[in-house]
Amino acid sequence: MGISTKTAKMLWGKAAARCSMPECRKLLVLDKTETGGHALIGDMAHMVARSEDGSRGASPLTPEERDDYANLLLLCKNHHREIDEQPGQWPVERLQRIKAEHEAWVERSVPDFDSQKVDDDINAAANADGTIREDVADIKQTVEEIRDTYHRELNAAKNTLHATESDLIALLTNILQKRIPREDIPAALDQSYERLTDLRSSMGDLRSLANEAPEIARLLAQADGALSSGGTFSLDEADKALEEADKRYAEIVREREETIKRDKENRARILGKRAELAAVKFNYAGAVQYYREQALLLAEALGEGHPDTAASYVNVAANLDAQGRYKEAGPLYRKGLDIRRAALGEGHPLTGSSYNNVAINLDSQGRYEEAEPLYRKGLEIARATLGEGHPHTGACYNNVAANLHSQGRYEEAEPLYRKDLEISSAALGEGHPDTATSYNNLASNLNAQGRCREAEPLFRKGLEINRAALGDGHPDTSTSYNNLASNLNAQGRYKAAEPLYRKGLEIRRATLGEGHPHTGMSYNNVAYTLNAQGRYEEAELLYRKGLEIKRAALGESHPDTATSYNNVAGNLDLQGRYEEAGPLYYKALEIGRIALGEGHPQTAMSYTNLAYFLDAQGRPEEAEPFFRKGLEIMEQALGANHPTTKTVRKNWEIFLLKIGRG
Questions:
Q1: Residue pair 277/238 in contact by the 8 Å Cβ criterion
Q2: Regarding beta strands 131-132 and 3-4, do their DSSP bridges make them parallel or antiparallel, or are they unpaired?
């Protein structure tokens, strides 16, 4: 069916040709030029996806209703990408509210908007049947255009991945259609090619299936051939062949009643490959769908309690994690754990992995105390099955230590960090990068205890190992430079820290690109040490750069973006620019509440930051509820004895004395 021209005109007109997001409202019409007329640069985004497997696609709406005005929202390309890649943060109800508020704003603020200037472009974009593309700007490019435009990224990828140009161009075509920013293309190519390599090497898993079902052998061979490097390489052709194989095998399953169990297992294997292919193409929602179907088939064929069924549940959870949907992933990780405990036993290594999966998921939600016994269980299993000196056992010691560290129990964490270092040194060697990580982890723990001078030589050791093992230009070496600089900062040696932070930034810009989130973090690190030296105006530019990168790379609603808003606000606060700082503190709090939840420690910090800001301006009555709320969350999330909780409580008591309520 498609979106009708009439519907498109109504949507663009009622939105005044502006992005509907309140913090954006960017005009989505380019002015006329000497060579052309007005150009539309916005997207008509679906609140309920056009297809059921899309973002927010589960709905009783008919195809016609999905393309109707009531289900459409006018957005700029960045915000369209954000709502589709983070559907959990942008439910239908929230998008409907944003649309209604934007149209009300248009009526108040742009009453004389002339929609004629967009009508001609909409008419021009209409198809023969009177429908119109969702995205008026066609982003498809020819091979030659891609080669000419992205020759730098292609050449770099050929050198590092040892891949053919034709393979990389095919992958890059898919990446460009996903609207991935140019600065993120190198990392996206690397990730996509790694997944493609794994998929190619595992296609042989289906050979026995081709022998058992000659009806689909040709299709499986087509998929294998389409994934092979060379002139015939095509992700889309591979996808089509696997889709057709899936359909035909589904028919075979219905026909072979006597072999139904085996058939379902085989179809589940095809779905697994479709899920892997979806992940190669960064289609995590598609991977979730295929793994869910796989889990249902395996539950029917093998039983709900089979380890292979558990693996499917874990795969669904991992792809939800990739979308930041931690709360949805949690129950599936627990389901995988329950099945493995029952099927494999409490002491099996896979059961230990599941304990760690559940614990990591709880950590992501700030639920550290709940995670601790699960990390300890994973350690207990690793010691029993792999032995005390195995590197994985060392990693489990590190997991428990990191969890205790997050709870502020630094002295308890220290011997576990030391144990991990001892195991890594013995099992992997003193010069191994993982040993360098163990040195850094122990040093960070000593730093947190205020033992900065003891920590410094350990940080230097970690840096020395990474430089020797990985080279001076490796991202992990950049992390070591940053860690050492952080230690010097903690000792008040800001001038000594600055060149190390700048070195870390230089490496990340060169290896990860200007737009990578870790590069944004390095900009924040340099800004932090400039702030500590009183060089606020210099720091402001770098804090703003870090924020810009986080917004582009992670989205407006990511917790790390909230941290960057707080950083900029704190810098402006120190400069006495309170009117500019205030809205940014509020923005950070708003993002944290939505992304992490009201009870997360980071949300608590946003409440207390805002309280300190209001109190410093002589507005104690406004500050008090924020102060109280922040302390209440910290006591619940971190516990009364956590160092951060103690600091906030002490400041709260000083605040009460100050206002005569002590």
A1: yes
A2: antiparallel
Q: Pick from 20, 126, 1: which is nearest to 68 by CA?
A: 1
What would the pLDDT profile of 285-300 be if each residue is shown by its tens digit?
A: 899 999 999 999 999 9
CB 263 within 8 A of CB 248: no
Domain ranges of the chain: 3-132, 139-282
Backbone φ, ψ for residue 618 (5° rounding): 80, 30
- Cα-to-chain-centroid distance, residue 94: 21
Q: What is the DSSP letter of 35?
A: S
CA max distance for the chain: 85
- Would you state the pLDDT for residue 37? 52
Start-to-end C-alpha separation, the chain: 68
The predicted structure's pLDDT at residue 519: 94
CA angle 535, 539, 540 (to 5 degrees): 120
Rounded CA gap, 452 and 493, in Å? 11
pTM: 0.57
Per-residue pLDDT band for 660 (boundaries 50, 70, 90) equals confident
Alpha carbons 620 and 150: distance in angstroms, whole number: 55
Return the SS3 of 176: helix
Token pair listed for 182? 């140019």
Per-residue model confidence as pLDDT tens digits over 24-40: 988 887 765 555 555 67
Distance from C-alpha of 131 to C-alpha of 128, rounded to nearest angstrom: 7
The 3-state DSSP class for residue 388 equals coil
Of the listed ranges 94-103, 138-147, 446-455, 536-545, the one predicted with least confidence: 138-147
The answer to whether residue 524 scores a pLDDT higher than 80 is: yes
Three-state secondary structure string covering 135-191 = ECCCCCCCHHHHHHHCHHHHHHHHHHHCCCHHHHHHHHHHHHHCCCCHHHHHHHHHH
Residue type, 319: N
DSSP H helical ranges for 575-642: 578-595, 601-616, 620-637
